[in-house]
Amino acid sequence: MRKGKYLFDPKKIGGMTLAVVYPGLHISNTIISFHVIMFVIGFVTFPLFWPLFWMLIYQNLGAIILLISSSILKPILMLIGKKFAVSPASVKNRR
Question: What's the maximum distance between 2 C-alpha atoms anywhere in the chain?
Fold first, then answer.
């Protein structure tokens, strides 16, 4: 392009004009995705290497184990309870 005039016929290019119009789009996409990846990696790995995080876990280990075990045992206990509550013997003995 010289002084606003193309050296070729732009109509002959076809769909290639869209690929060349926004070259900064690819650059900005790369920069933003790099920052997002670094933020996620930092957000995930920072607590793993931070001693205060592990101290808080060890101090509350009993509560964490209780929470996890109760969430695992609840469906099992509900299944056993439903078996006993709706069994033929329990339905026959109801008053």
Answer: 99
What is this structure's pTM?
0.42
State the amino acid at position 22 in one-letter form: Y
Tell me how far apart the alpha carbons of residues 37 and 51 are, in angstroms, rounded to a whole number.
24
Kindly report, residue by residue over 53-67, the tens digit of the pLDDT. Answer: 889 889 999 999 999
Residue with tokens 């469906």: 75
